[in-house]
Amino acid sequence: MAVDLQSPTTSLSFTYNEIAITYRNKGDNRLALDYFLKALDIKENVLKCNKYHPELAMAYNNIGEIYFHLDAYDNALHYLTHAFEIRLKGTVATHTDLTAIYHNLGGIYLKKKDFTKALEMHTKALEIDSQIFHDDHESLAMSHHQIAIVQLELRALSDALYHAEKALRIMLRSQAKENLSMVSTFQYNLGLVQYQLDNTRKALKMADKALNNLLACSVEHQKMMAAIYNFFSLIYEQEEDIVKALEYVKKAIEQAKIWATRTRTFELETYLARLDQLRNRECAKSFTFGKISLDHFTNQDDLIRQFNEEFQRISPTDIFERLQLINNLIIICSRQNNFSLVFKYFNEANLIYSEHQSSNLITKEQLDEIMINILFNTARSYYRQQNWTMSL
Predict the structure, then answer these.
(1) Residue 161 falls within a domain, yes or no?
(2) 227 and 312 share one domain
(3) Distance between CA atoms of residues 377 and 392, nearest Å
(4) Contact 341/333 with Cβ under 8 angstroms?
(5) Are 136 and 117 in contact (CB under 8 A)?
(6) Do residues 271 and 253 make contact, with C-beta atoms less than 8 angstroms apart?
(7) How many helices (H) and strands (E) does the chain have?
(8) 3-class DSSP assignment, residue 154
(9) What mean pLDDT comes out for the span 94-104?
(10) Is the pLDDT of residue 95 over 50?
(11) What is the pLDDT of residue 298?
(12) Among 171-175, 210-214, 307-311, where is mean pLDDT lowest?
C-alpha cells in the first residue's frame, strides 16, 4: 500500500517522529522512545506500510539507538537487527544505511562485551565504506576509529594503534577536520592506546591536543571534557605526580557534575572514586574506591554485615568515614534490588548531613562531596526501578 504523504495520519506520524528527535537531541531518551514508538505504531498498524518499507527501517533504527542509550542492549539489538533485515531485503537501501546499522550493532556488541562480534560489525562497515568513498573520507575515519576501540578492548594493541593512527590521519585530511569535537575524540582514543602501550609522553601529547581542540569548540562538551581531564589524571598518576593527578581529577569532577545535571548518567561516581583513591594512595584500603570492585564479591550479604560492623566500630565523630560506609551499603543494596534498605541508609546519611552543616568534625567541602556521591547512588536505585522522575 502506498503511503499518502498528505494524509492527516501520515502527518501525525511525522509529527511524532519530529517530537521524538527533539527529545533525543535534548538527551531525554525516555520521552524520545515514547514518541518513536507512537510513530512506528502508526506506520505499521494504521498506514500499513510494506514490511520492507525504508521508513520502517529508519523507525526501527531510531528506536534501537534510543534503547542503546538507555542501556537496554537486548531491546536495542532486537530493533537494530530488524532494521538491518529490512535494509537487506528492501528495494531501497544505500551503503550509508547499511554501514550506519553495522556501526550501531557494533556498538551494542561492544557494550555487551562481545568484542569479536563487535569487531566483525565494524569491519563490515569499513569494507563497504572502502568500496564507496575516497581515501580521505570521514566515514572511513569513523570505521577505523571504532575498530581501534574494539581492538583496545581485545588488548590487540598493535592493531589498535594502527587503526587509531589511521583514523586520526584520515580525519585531519577530510572535510570533517573542522569538527573539533570529533577530532578531539579521535586524539583522545589514540592517546588511550599510547597509554596502554606505556608511551606516556605520546599519550600526554595526544591528551593535550584533544583538550585544546575541545576547549576551542563553540559548544561545551562536559562529558568528553571530564573524560580527558580524567585521562590526564591517569597519566600523571602513572608518573607518580599525585599532585597533578589530583588537580586533573578534580577538574573531571567539575565537568561531570555539570553533565550529570543534564542527563541520567553516573560517570560522576567514577571520578569521585578516583579522587578518593588518589587521596588515599598510601592507605591499604579506601572504602569509596572499593565500591568499584564490589560487584566482584560473590557474597554481598557478608559485605553488608562487615560494613555494618565497621560502622558500629567507627567513632561517631568520624563523619566522613561513616558516610563512606553508608555509601557502600547503598551501592550493595541497590545491586541486590533491596530498595527499602537503600532508602533506610539514605535517610541515615541525610540525617548526618543535616546535623553537620556547620560542624568542626568535617569540612563543608568533604561533606558536600560525599553527599553528592550518596545522592547519585541513591538516584541509581530509582533508575533501576525505572522511576525516572525520582532518579532525576
Answers:
(1) yes
(2) no
(3) 12
(4) yes
(5) no
(6) yes
(7) 19, 0
(8) coil
(9) 81
(10) yes
(11) 44
(12) 307-311
Please give the Cα distance from 265 to 262 (Å, whole number).
9
Name the residue range of residue 299's domain: 295-391
Dihedral angle computed from the Cα positions of residues 172, 178, 179 and 184, in that order, rounded to the nearest 10 degrees: 50
Shared domain check, 319 and 198:
no
- Name which of 61, 71, 62 is nearest 35 in CA terms: 62
Last residue of a domain, one of 199, 226, 241: 241
Q: Is 48 left (phi over 0), alpha (psi -120 to 50) or beta?
A: left
Count of all residues that appear for the chain in the document:
392
Same-domain pairing of 39 and 176:
yes
Report pTM. Answer: 0.67
How many folded domains does the chain comprise?
2
Comparing CA positions, the residue from 329, 322, 381 lying closest to residue 355 is 322
DSSP annotation string for 198-226: T-HHHHHHHHHHHHHHHHT-SS--HHHHH
DSSP letters of 99-158? Answer: HHHHHHHHHHHHHTT-HHHHHHHHHHHHHHHHHHS-TT-HHHHHHHHHHHHHHHHTT-HH
For residue 32, what are the CA distances in angstroms to 69, 265, 362?
Answer: 11, 16, 43
The C-alpha cell that represents 186 in the structure block: 579521535
Chain centroid offset of residue 288 CA: 21
Alpha-carbon distance 82 to 77, whole Å?
8
Q: What is the mean pLDDT of residues 264-276?
A: 69
| Rounded Cα distance, 177 and 156, in Å | 27
* Alpha-carbon span 224 to 204, nearest angstrom: 16
Cα(92)–Cα(114) distance, rounded to whole angstroms? 30
Q: Give the range among 233-242, 294-303, 320-329 with minimum mean pLDDT.
A: 294-303
Longest dimension (CA), the chain: 75
Q: What is the dihedral of CA 101, 102, 106, 112, to 10 degrees?
A: 60
Q: How many whole angstroms separate alpha carbon 81 and alpha carbon 75?
A: 10
